[in-house]
């Protein structure tokens, strides 16, 4: 029990560092989805998932602003940009498909 208590007290000294690395890992983990969306023309992504996930990321960003937490703002700002990029890819691929069907 002492070891766990000692570890937790040590970790309490580094909340921003822990938040920073959590932000890096979760933001970078989303990047393969961008590549997969590019390869599959956005077929596997639902609009509902993008809307819900994007809204959640936006609220986490706002929470970071209210808490003045740089890791929360950084991670969710970057993830929000990735979500916007995914939405842009889906719109772009849908437009390309519609133009192909029209010709």
What's the gist of this structure?
This protein is mainly alpha-helical. Helices cover 86% and strands 0% of the residues. It starts with a helix and ends with a helix.
Description:
With 103 residues, the protein is mostly helical. It has one domain: Up-down Bundle (Monooxygenase). The chain is built from five helices and no strands. Helix 3 (31-40) packs parallel to helix 5 and helix 4 (47-67) runs antiparallel to helix 5.
Q: What is the topological layout?
A:
Elements lengths: L1 H10 L3 H15 L1 H10 L6 H21 L2 H33 L1
Brief descriptors of the model:
103 residues; mainly alpha; Monooxygenase; 86% helix; elongated
Shape from CA axes?
Answer: elongated
**Total individual domains:** 1
CA-based gyration radius: 19 Å
Strand-residue fraction?
under 5%
Q: Helix segment count?
A: 5
| Share in helix | over 70%
CATH architecture: Up-down Bundle
Topology, number of strands: 0
How is the main sheet built? none
Could you name the CATH topology? Monooxygenase
User: Which stretches are poorly predicted, pLDDT < 50 over at least 5 residues?
Assistant: none
Category from helices, strands and their pairing: mainly alpha
**Termini separation:** 71 Å
> What's the level 1 CATH class?
Mainly Alpha
Q: What sequence of helices (H) and strands (E) makes up the elements?
A: HHHHH
Summed over residues and divided by their number, the pLDDT gives a mean of 86
């Amino acid at each position: 029990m002492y070891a766990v208590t000692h570890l937790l007290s040590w970790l309490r000294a580094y909340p921003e560092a822990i938040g920073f690395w959590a932000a890096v890992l979760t933001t970078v983990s989303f990047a393969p989805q961008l590549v997969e969306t590019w390869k599959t023309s956005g077929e596997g992504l639902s609009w509902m998932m993008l809307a819900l996930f994007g809204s959640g990321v936006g609220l986490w960003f706002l929470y970071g602003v209210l808490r003045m937490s740089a890791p929360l703002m950084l991670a969710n700002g970057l993830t929000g940009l990735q979500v916007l990029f995914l939405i842009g890819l889906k719109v772009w691929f849908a437009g390309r498909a519609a133009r192909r069907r029209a010709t």
